[in-house]
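Human: You know discrete backbone vocabularies at least as well as I do. Show me how you would write down a chain together with its backbone fold. No explanation is needed for now; the record alone will do.

Assistant:
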Amino acid sequence: MAACGQVCCDAFENLKQPALPDPEKYKVCANPVCRAVTSAFTFALQNTTAMPGRMLLPFFLFALFFWQPACTQTITPPTVLSGKITLREGWHPMLYLVKPNYYTQLIASYEGTVVDSAALVADGSFRFQNLNWLQEKGLYLLFIQPEGSRYRNEIASPLPAENYVCLVLAPGTTTRVEGNARELTRSYQLTEAHPESRQLLQLRDARLPLYQEFEHQNPPSDSTMEWSDHGNSEGQEKTNAALFAFLDTAQAPLPVFAALRLCAPINDFRDQPEFYLAVLDRLSSQAAGHPWVEQLATYLNPSRLPVLKGALMPDFALPTPAGDTLSLKDLRSRLLLVDFWASWCAPCRREMKETIRPLYDQYHDKGFNVLGISIDRSQEAWEAALRKDGAVWPNVSDLLGDLSPVRQSLKFEYIPSNYLLDAEGRLLARNVHGAALQEFVSKYMQEH
């Protein structure tokens, strides 16, 4: 940024030349004191022959006392948002800049306020003409919409068709975006941008496994915009790992808010509540007073979360296949795995046969136990699955399916879900599966 003082001093130097220029030429500084000083010198120098020296003294004293403090203002360069979006048939050649007003409006369809727009010319180039309204740094979404869309802030679906760019804009910064209208989120690049916008680009890259998964299963046609919204969990697991790694180290609050929205788009933080609480604690220090911190905190209120690590698992009692009642405290063991499953859940049953049964056989005599809790509705299907899969450990179910009070009290959304408890019934870990579960049980039984 150019210093206002340099501009004013240059003006003064020019005013001392024999041929005095138009003083209006030098009223380039917005600082009123700078303008007054320039005017004073102009008047004094233009009237040196007509004024006695003693009358010039006040003008020079004025300059002596006020020039230096006046010349500390800086001139902010213009804020620029421009670039080039390759248009495809079926896309409207207009970009919309949307400002989320609340945390929940970030990366969400039909949310936020459209604050500006810019047309794309024939080659896809665009430039927002006047961003003087932008007075502070903020997070914005840049949208392009299909022809015929009724909305300016709708996120296209499924995943590969997403049509927005997430940006951090600040006064005096230049942002240049390039991408493809048909898959803007996936394709965009930043040739120039605020550093925090580049962090947001890292979040987009963290989701590349999901885009690749969709593309592998549903190769898109150049003539359509149709994909099937399904996929396996591998891409999601890779994406979650990358997003969690970002959240674990990121220091800039705005990209952290965006990462949290991508991790929990429906504001459900029950899968890894301890991790999210740690992020919230860091945000409370880094962005103290930011309204989004307070809004995020409402979703991480303990009343909305499951039992946390180190806390006692709430006790419950459920019927066994034989009709008896078995409570959680009846099964306290050196290490207890509480496993929620159902007969219709293929991943649950695969885990029972391939992971849980071998662990039970190896460590049961050493103090490892399992409590299986089915969310089935059919006792016949439940018992048939137990026999077929060799689930010889204690099993219970109220046969109420998703309406089971136990499931609702523990606040988990999917199965298989599991909890590992110590001898006192305190939570050690949740949702540990496959090889990670084998490693956890083996290590714990060796060390405790």
